[in-house]
């Protein structure tokens, strides 16, 4: 096989496949390793995991993993979330999204997300396909789930009409674990995420991603040693694949800090860069152009 692979491109004519020219990364041999456990096992010297620019709320890595354990315990013991259940995240960028995502996957349940700008009808069509048993959202967005029959966990304590609110993440993070939860065995080939395409070529399609898929992605990111200890500014939506994987998983594994912008605003972004001494920005080309054309950006 090696002789059939082009040394410059990595392309193999015999099976029309491109092979990576990088050395293969060793992956854990444990077939029952969930991606949350893999991430939490990575050594680093990071201190602050997340900073919410809207509230000033900070989570250290120690506080993050305590929160993940507490939320997972509440989801399992109080709400009955189990392996294979699907949890919808419908929320703007928030310090709670990493906590919820990691907690859900640690239970063997599946994370799916929806664009916060979608209409109730668009969300309904997506949930008809993904069949979530639980949704994490905000009081402002909860009405988009009215009549769906999906139980709702809010970001913070509150109430909203037309939905069955069963808890709040902010409260779960403060609750001591019951000590009664027996962790479900999660297979590395189990589905961890089901994220949807934008629908540019037709109906939006769910893409299945396993725990092993994500573990491999995390391992690849961890291998880039220069990424650790940086301060990332999260300017992209966490409901997108890049935003969710990079800023709830990859950065956590290497001990970098993520500064979260709830919504994108050019001047707010520039102020956050200065205030929090951000070292890495993930930007789309139009944003870079806007920065160069803006007086504040040039300064």
UniProtKB/TrEMBL annotation:
SUPFAM superfamilies: Acetyl-CoA synthetase-like. Residues 44-294 form the AMP-dependent synthetase/ligase domain. GO terms for cellular component: peroxisome. GO terms for molecular function: CoA-ligase activity. Signal peptide: none annotated. It comes from the Eukaryota. The chain crosses the membrane at residues 242-261. Coiled coil: none annotated. Keywords: Ligase, Membrane, Transmembrane, Transmembrane helix. This is AMP-dependent synthetase/ligase domain-containing protein. It comes from Brassica oleracea.
